[in-house]
Structures are given as structure tokens and as C-alpha cells.
Amino acid sequence: MDPVWTTTVLLVPFVVVLTAGFFYLYGVVMGLLSKTSVRNKVVVITDALSGLGKECAGVFHKGGARLILCGKSWEKLEELADDLANASDPTVTFPPKLVLLDFGDMDSMPEAIEEVLECYGCLDIVLFNSSMKVKAPVQSLSLEMDKLLMNNNYFGPVTLAKGVLPSMISRRTGHLLLVNSIQGKLAVPFRTTYAASKHAVQAFFDCLRAEVEEYGISVSTINHTFISCSPCENTEAAPSRSLWSLLYTQKPLGVSPDEAAAEIVKTLNNKRKEVLIAPSLPKVAIYTRSFFPNVFFAVMAAGVNNAAAAEKM
User: Fold this and answer.
1) Measured on CA atoms in the order 242, 246, 251, 254, is the torsion positive or negative?
2) DSSP 3-state assignment of 237?
3) Which of the residues 24, 194, 215, 287 is marked catalytic?
4) Which of 32, 57, 75, 166 is deepest in the core (most CB within 10 A)?
């Protein structure tokens, strides 16, 4: 028998076992990190009904956190709580508390914040997860839609942050973690108000980080391309012939909820101030925008012209 063929046959099982062992160890390490990060801590998750919200709820619940799950639908929140209870050991976990919270309804925010604070009397971690997306030419967006976007992506999270800060400041501890879009740093065409809201909330949390550091409060931001659960759910991943669409198509399925949840766990554990989850091209675009703005603007304009030409064909 050919020695090369024999070596290959022997190496394949070894590589398979080694790979399986690596993923097993990775799972064990992530499980330990999640437990040390959140065990017995009070954790608030906004938009807990989203893909990422559910993933984080599952990880933190198994890690022994005292969860406060927020969402727009009471029935779906109850279903999520039941699912968590059925998938965990009740002797080492806590039943989640549920709070109706809708960033789009600013009038309801004071009551919702009061309810959140009353659940356990204190907070350790707040995960700002919710987001509203709109993709359209600027002239087609109404002012009402602009306001709704700003409420969901900026005024809602800011109002919640301001509402929970006094409690954290009095205890001189806490962690605020914003799950934000890469468009908090990089704006692309046809997302004017969405990008503006993401820039605004990014700036708010950047300023907040410096202001509350003296109180022992950590502030982290995670910027990703987009969270995806399946190819059919990804509108951003649709093939496009525009140049700026390449910022998203390098990773067609975006960031999966489990990948993002793992990054959140690590960020809570090591208290990193800022995390960027993106392939190489969007990262290069961010630096190009900073150091070579004229080049960046030219590429964006060319992309829009290319998209317009493609639509006319």
C-alpha cells in the first residue's frame, strides 16, 4: 500500500477526534465562563424574544442568573419562561421574572423601569439587545418612522439606562452592555435614520462609560454586522450588485445567536469596553472612513449608482 495513502488514512481519524475534542473543551470553557459571569447575579435582557435574546436567556439561566426578561408580548414571554424551566434543573436555577417593555412606547417606560427595579431590588447586568431596522431611500421615510426608529434604537435604551443608573451608582457596581450594529461606526446608503440612531446610541454609551467608571460600573458595546438565525431570515444577506453590499456579503449568514451570545459572555467576564464582530472588509471600511474619508465616500456613491443602474436593467 502507498505510504502516503496509509498516512492519510491514519491521520483522518486523528484529526476528527482532535477537532471534536477542541469543540468539547470550548463548550466546557464557555459553560464555566457563563457560570462565573452571571451566577446569582440579576440580569436584565431587553427584547428577550429575539433570537439573540432567547439564546442569552438560555445561557444565563443555566448559568444560575436571576433573569428579568423583557419583551412586547406577555404570552411569548411566558412561553419562553416555560421553555427555560423545562430545559434546566430547578434546584440550581431561578424562575425568570417577566416585564412588558416596548421601547417604541415611550409613555410606558417609567412604569416598566419601576417594575424592573422592583423585581429584585437591585440590578447587576443590563443587556440592551432590542433594535428596529428600516432600509429605504431617505425621501421615502416619513418623520413618524424616523421618530419610531429613534425611540426604539436610541431614546428607549437611553431612558432605561438612566432609570437603572441610580441603583447601580448607590451600590457602586453594575455592567451595562449594549448590543449595537456596526452602523454605529459605519453608515451605508439607504439606512439614514437607522444609522443615525446607532451612531447616537453608540456615542451615548461611550460618554456614559467615562462618566460612571468612578462608581465601579462597566459599560461595554458590541458592534456586529447583523444577527441571523437562518438564511431565509436574512434580508441583509440577499445577493446584491452594489459595491457597498460587499460589506455584508463576506459573511453571508451574519453572526449566529450562539456566536453573539458567546461573545457577550466573554465580554461580561473580561469587561472589555468595545467588541467588533465583523469580517475583514467591514473592519477595513471603518478604518478607511477614518483615515481616507474621500475614498470611502467615493466608493459609497459608486455603489449607489451601480445599484440604481442595475434596477433599470
Assistant:
1) negative
2) coil
3) 194
4) 57
